[in-house]
Amino acid sequence: MIDPTEAFQTAVRSTLIASPDVVALVQPENIRELPGRPENFPSILFGNQKLEFLGYSGNGWRSGRVSLVLHIWALENAQIARQIGGAVLHALETGPADTEDTMFLDWQRPTLAWMRDPKPELVATHGAMALECVAMWRP
Question: What confidence score (pLDDT) does residue 75 get?
Fold first, then answer.
């Protein structure tokens, strides 16, 4: 693996679909990577993956700061969107679980911002949650 952002995204998704609080509000098939606005609501979409390579850590490991933005979408009821955001925050309190090839360290507390849909006739609520940590991986 050259870029650990996919492993980070997969680990975050696994954490979310393993959370009963999250899947009570969002169907697992609506927690995925998809650019732009979702077709199905409510949804949690992944975007804006980023890697800042930090260097070699010895024994064949590499390290880098990885980040990703979760986009939380719900129609009409902003309260539902906020409940989803709370469930996601709770599920990711300590970060995603390490995988066989990747460790996630220095987990930063997520930040979350809420905004109204730019198409007011659609009455959607959109939240953007920034996630960041240091990943160590073997290529």
Answer: 85
Number of structural domains found in the chain: 1
pLDDT value at 128 more than 90: yes
> Is the Cβ–Cβ distance between 83 and 108 less than 8 Å?
no
The SS3 of residue 21 is helix
Give every CB contact of residue 29 below 8 A, 6+ residues apart in sequence. 40
Minimal CA–CA distance to 90: which of 21, 25, 29?
Answer: 21
> Where does residue 48 fall: left (phi above 0), alpha (psi -120 to 50 degrees), or beta otherwise?
left
* 14: CATH: 3.30.2000.30
List, for residues 12-46, the tens digit of each pLDDT value.
Answer: 999 999 999 999 999 999 999 987 788 899 999 99
Residue of 63, 70, 69 whose CA lies nearest to 134: 63
Q: What is the pLDDT of residue 69?
A: 96
Print the domain residue range for 71: 5-137
What pLDDT sits at residue 120?
67
Tokens 């959607």, residue?
A: 124
